[in-house]
Amino acid sequence: MTVFAQAEFLRAVARSADLPAPGPPEIALAGRSNVGKSSAINALAGRRSLARVSKTPGRTQTINFYSLGDSARLVDLPGYGYARVPQPMRAHWRELVGEYLDGPREIAGIVLVMDARHPLTELDAQFLSWLSSVRAAPLVALLNKADKLPRSAQKRALDDVQRRLDGAPTTLFSSITLQGVDECRDLLAAWLRAGRENKKPPVKGM
User: Fold this and answer.
1) Domain boundaries in the chain?
2) Are 82 and 33 in contact (CB under 8 A)?
3) Which of 202, 205, 181, 182 is nearest to 192 (CA)?
4) pLDDT computed for residue 205 by the predictor
5) Which are the contacts of 128, defined by CB distance < 8 A and separation ≥ 6?
6) CATH for 3-196?
7) What is the residue-wise DSSP string for 151-184?
8) Per residue in 169-182, pLDDT tens?
9) How far apart are CA 36 and CA 129, in angstroms?
10) d(CA 12, CA 76)
11) Which helix (H) or strand (E) holds 7?
12) Nearest CA among 93, 113, 123 for reference residue 15
Protein backbone atom coordinates (compact mmCIF):
# COMPACT_ATOMS: atom_id res chain seq x y z
CA MET A 1 0.00 0.00 0.00
CA THR A 2 1.32 3.44 -0.92
CA VAL A 3 1.08 6.42 1.40
CA PHE A 4 -1.41 7.96 -1.05
CA ALA A 5 -3.89 5.13 -0.49
CA GLN A 6 -4.35 6.54 3.03
CA ALA A 7 -5.56 9.91 1.72
CA GLU A 8 -8.51 11.44 3.55
CA PHE A 9 -10.00 14.92 3.29
CA LEU A 10 -8.79 17.01 6.21
CA ARG A 11 -9.84 20.65 5.83
CA ALA A 12 -10.81 23.37 3.35
CA VAL A 13 -9.26 26.72 4.18
CA ALA A 14 -10.56 30.05 2.88
CA ARG A 15 -8.63 32.34 5.28
CA SER A 16 -4.98 32.28 6.23
CA ALA A 17 -5.98 32.37 9.89
CA ASP A 18 -7.58 28.94 9.44
CA LEU A 19 -4.51 27.21 8.00
CA PRO A 20 -3.75 24.06 10.01
CA ALA A 21 -0.69 24.18 12.20
CA PRO A 22 2.53 23.08 10.55
CA GLY A 23 2.98 19.35 10.92
CA PRO A 24 4.18 16.54 8.69
CA PRO A 25 5.77 17.12 5.25
CA GLU A 26 3.36 18.33 2.58
CA ILE A 27 3.14 18.03 -1.19
CA ALA A 28 1.35 21.00 -2.76
CA LEU A 29 -0.39 20.87 -6.15
CA ALA A 30 -0.70 24.07 -8.16
CA GLY A 31 -1.99 24.89 -11.63
CA ARG A 32 -4.35 26.93 -13.75
CA SER A 33 -8.08 26.67 -13.20
CA ASN A 34 -9.65 23.60 -14.75
CA VAL A 35 -6.32 21.95 -15.52
CA GLY A 36 -7.27 18.76 -13.68
CA LYS A 37 -5.66 19.00 -10.23
CA SER A 38 -8.61 17.26 -8.55
CA SER A 39 -8.52 14.43 -11.07
CA ALA A 40 -4.78 14.10 -10.52
CA ILE A 41 -5.30 13.84 -6.75
CA ASN A 42 -7.94 11.15 -7.25
CA ALA A 43 -5.62 9.21 -9.55
CA LEU A 44 -2.69 9.43 -7.13
CA ALA A 45 -4.91 8.26 -4.28
CA GLY A 46 -6.51 5.53 -6.37
CA ARG A 47 -9.93 6.94 -5.48
CA ARG A 48 -12.77 8.07 -7.70
CA SER A 49 -14.13 11.00 -5.73
CA LEU A 50 -11.72 11.95 -2.95
CA ALA A 51 -11.34 15.40 -4.50
CA ARG A 52 -14.41 16.93 -6.10
CA VAL A 53 -14.07 17.42 -9.83
CA SER A 54 -15.84 20.40 -11.38
CA LYS A 55 -16.16 21.38 -15.03
CA THR A 56 -16.61 25.00 -13.97
CA PRO A 57 -13.27 26.87 -13.97
CA GLY A 58 -12.47 28.88 -10.87
CA ARG A 59 -14.79 26.83 -8.65
CA THR A 60 -12.15 25.89 -6.07
CA GLN A 61 -11.30 28.99 -4.04
CA THR A 62 -9.99 27.26 -0.94
CA ILE A 63 -6.79 25.44 -0.05
CA ASN A 64 -7.84 21.83 0.45
CA PHE A 65 -5.78 19.67 2.78
CA TYR A 66 -5.72 15.86 2.63
CA SER A 67 -4.03 13.74 5.28
CA LEU A 68 -1.87 10.81 4.20
CA GLY A 69 -2.06 9.00 7.50
CA ASP A 70 -0.15 10.77 10.26
CA SER A 71 3.06 11.14 8.28
CA ALA A 72 2.25 13.43 5.35
CA ARG A 73 -0.30 15.67 3.64
CA LEU A 74 -1.42 16.54 0.12
CA VAL A 75 -2.41 20.18 -0.39
CA ASP A 76 -4.56 21.33 -3.32
CA LEU A 77 -3.99 25.02 -3.97
CA PRO A 78 -6.81 26.96 -5.67
CA GLY A 79 -6.42 27.25 -9.43
CA TYR A 80 -5.08 30.50 -10.80
CA GLY A 81 -5.72 32.54 -13.90
CA TYR A 82 -9.46 32.19 -14.58
CA ALA A 83 -10.49 35.45 -16.23
CA ARG A 84 -14.01 35.59 -14.80
CA VAL A 85 -12.84 35.51 -11.21
CA PRO A 86 -13.26 39.08 -9.86
CA GLN A 87 -10.10 41.03 -9.10
CA PRO A 88 -10.72 41.05 -5.31
CA MET A 89 -10.91 37.23 -5.40
CA ARG A 90 -7.64 37.06 -7.34
CA ALA A 91 -6.00 39.29 -4.74
CA HIS A 92 -7.39 37.05 -2.02
CA TRP A 93 -5.96 33.99 -3.82
CA ARG A 94 -2.51 35.56 -3.91
CA GLU A 95 -2.66 36.49 -0.24
CA LEU A 96 -3.97 33.08 0.88
CA VAL A 97 -1.55 31.03 -1.21
CA GLY A 98 1.30 33.39 -0.32
CA GLU A 99 0.62 32.90 3.40
CA TYR A 100 0.67 29.13 2.86
CA LEU A 101 3.86 29.02 0.80
CA ASP A 102 5.75 31.58 2.89
CA GLY A 103 4.78 30.07 6.23
CA PRO A 104 6.85 27.83 8.53
CA ARG A 105 5.70 24.61 6.86
CA GLU A 106 7.62 21.56 5.69
CA ILE A 107 6.77 21.64 1.98
CA ALA A 108 8.51 18.58 0.58
CA GLY A 109 7.69 19.42 -3.02
CA ILE A 110 5.38 21.23 -5.42
CA VAL A 111 3.56 19.63 -8.34
CA LEU A 112 2.82 22.05 -11.16
CA VAL A 113 -0.13 20.52 -13.04
CA MET A 114 -0.44 21.65 -16.64
CA ASP A 115 -2.51 20.63 -19.65
CA ALA A 116 -0.19 18.58 -21.87
CA ARG A 117 -1.75 20.27 -24.90
CA HIS A 118 -0.92 23.77 -23.60
CA PRO A 119 2.02 23.51 -21.18
CA LEU A 120 3.91 26.43 -19.68
CA THR A 121 1.45 29.15 -20.55
CA GLU A 122 2.19 32.74 -19.63
CA LEU A 123 0.17 32.23 -16.44
CA ASP A 124 2.25 29.19 -15.52
CA ALA A 125 5.43 31.20 -16.11
CA GLN A 126 4.09 34.00 -13.89
CA PHE A 127 3.30 31.50 -11.14
CA LEU A 128 6.78 29.96 -11.34
CA SER A 129 8.38 33.39 -11.16
CA TRP A 130 6.28 34.32 -8.14
CA LEU A 131 6.89 30.94 -6.52
CA SER A 132 10.66 31.38 -6.75
CA SER A 133 10.36 34.59 -4.74
CA VAL A 134 8.41 33.05 -1.85
CA ARG A 135 9.46 29.40 -1.51
CA ALA A 136 12.36 27.17 -2.47
CA ALA A 137 11.08 23.62 -2.91
CA PRO A 138 11.56 20.74 -5.35
CA LEU A 139 9.28 21.02 -8.37
CA VAL A 140 7.83 18.40 -10.70
CA ALA A 141 5.90 19.32 -13.85
CA LEU A 142 2.93 17.06 -14.42
CA LEU A 143 1.60 17.16 -18.00
CA ASN A 144 -2.00 16.16 -17.41
CA LYS A 145 -4.54 15.00 -20.03
CA ALA A 146 -1.75 13.34 -22.00
CA ASP A 147 -4.29 10.82 -23.29
CA LYS A 148 -5.66 13.57 -25.53
CA LEU A 149 -2.39 13.70 -27.51
CA PRO A 150 -0.85 11.15 -29.90
CA ARG A 151 2.47 9.66 -28.78
CA SER A 152 4.56 11.87 -31.05
CA ALA A 153 2.95 15.02 -29.66
CA GLN A 154 3.36 13.72 -26.10
CA LYS A 155 7.10 13.33 -26.64
CA ARG A 156 7.40 16.82 -28.12
CA ALA A 157 5.54 18.34 -25.18
CA LEU A 158 7.65 16.40 -22.68
CA ASP A 159 10.95 17.36 -24.33
CA ASP A 160 9.91 21.02 -24.63
CA VAL A 161 8.89 21.36 -20.98
CA GLN A 162 12.02 19.60 -19.72
CA ARG A 163 14.16 21.93 -21.82
CA ARG A 164 12.35 25.08 -20.69
CA LEU A 165 12.48 24.01 -17.04
CA ASP A 166 16.19 23.17 -17.20
CA GLY A 167 15.64 19.43 -16.85
CA ALA A 168 13.25 19.56 -13.88
CA PRO A 169 11.44 16.25 -13.29
CA THR A 170 8.56 16.10 -15.76
CA THR A 171 6.03 13.37 -16.47
CA LEU A 172 3.19 12.76 -18.87
CA PHE A 173 0.07 12.04 -16.85
CA SER A 174 -3.50 10.91 -17.40
CA SER A 175 -6.17 10.25 -14.81
CA ILE A 176 -8.06 8.34 -17.53
CA THR A 177 -5.40 5.86 -18.66
CA LEU A 178 -3.31 6.21 -15.45
CA GLN A 179 -0.25 7.04 -17.54
CA GLY A 180 2.52 8.37 -15.31
CA VAL A 181 0.61 7.79 -12.06
CA ASP A 182 3.01 5.23 -10.59
CA GLU A 183 6.07 7.29 -11.58
CA CYS A 184 4.60 10.40 -9.97
CA ARG A 185 3.67 8.51 -6.79
CA ASP A 186 7.20 7.12 -6.50
CA LEU A 187 8.84 10.53 -6.80
CA LEU A 188 6.46 12.24 -4.38
CA ALA A 189 6.80 9.40 -1.87
CA ALA A 190 10.60 9.81 -2.05
CA TRP A 191 10.23 13.56 -1.42
CA LEU A 192 8.01 12.90 1.58
CA ARG A 193 10.47 10.37 3.00
CA ALA A 194 13.28 12.88 2.57
CA GLY A 195 11.18 15.49 4.35
CA ARG A 196 10.51 13.20 7.29
CA GLU A 197 14.20 12.30 7.51
CA ASN A 198 15.32 15.92 6.99
CA LYS A 199 17.35 14.96 3.94
CA LYS A 200 17.83 16.64 0.57
CA PRO A 201 15.06 15.30 -1.68
CA PRO A 202 15.98 13.38 -4.84
CA VAL A 203 15.35 15.15 -8.14
CA LYS A 204 15.87 12.29 -10.56
CA GLY A 205 13.77 9.28 -11.36
CA MET A 206 11.02 10.56 -13.65
Assistant:
1) 3-196
2) yes
3) 202
4) 44
5) 112, 139
6) 3.40.50.300
7) HHHHHHHHHHHHHHTTT--EEE--TTT-TTHHHH
8) 999 999 999 999 99
9) 22
10) 9
11) strand 7-13
12) 93
